[in-house]
Here is the input.
Amino acid sequence: MNLRPTLAGRIVTLEPLEERHVPELREASADERAWTWMVTTDFDVWLGYTLGSDVFHPFAVVHDGRAVGSTSYLSVVPEHGRLEIGNTWNTPSMWGTGANTEAKYLLLRHAFEELGMKRVEFKTDAKNERARAALAAIPSEFEGIHRKHMIVRDGERRDSAWYAVIDDDWPEARAALERRIAQKA
Here is the structure.
C-alpha cells in the first residue's frame, strides 16, 4: 500500500515530505496564522512528530516549485478501509487559491481510487470555522463534536469536529471538488 506517492494536480503537487523540503517549509511557516489551529505552534516540534512518526504519512504541498505547506494521511486502518487526512497547514498567502482544495482532492482520489478506502475522516478544532467551512464544501458529512478530544498548544483542551467522506459519497464529492478546482486553476 503506497501511502506517499507523488500526486500532481493543476495547482499543487503533493510530494512525500523529505528533509529537502524543510528550508522552504520553515519559510512558509513564518506567518504565525498558519499555526493558529495546529496541535503545536512550534515548527521544529511539528517537524519532529511529523517526520519522526509511524502514524503520519506526510506530504509537502508544492506550488510553483516551492513547498508552501503540508498535509498527511494518518490513522490508517487498512483492515477497516479507513484513514484520516489531517495535520494540514498552508502558508496564509496560499489561502483562497485552491491549493488546499486540490490537495484534499488529490488525497481523497488516491484514498478511494488507488487504496480502496471506504471511509476518509477529517478532524478539526471545533472553533476553526475556516476549516469547518472547507470540509463542508468538499462536501464531507459532519458527524459531531468530540468534547475534550485532545490536548493542544500548551495544554489547551480541544473539542474536535469530525467529518467524513465515504466511498458512497465520493462520486458527488469528486465532481464538486473538480468544479471548484476548475474555477481556481
Summary: The chain has a mean pLDDT of 96. Residues 7-184 form a domain with the Aminopeptidase fold (CATH 3.40.630.30). The radius of gyration is 15 Å.
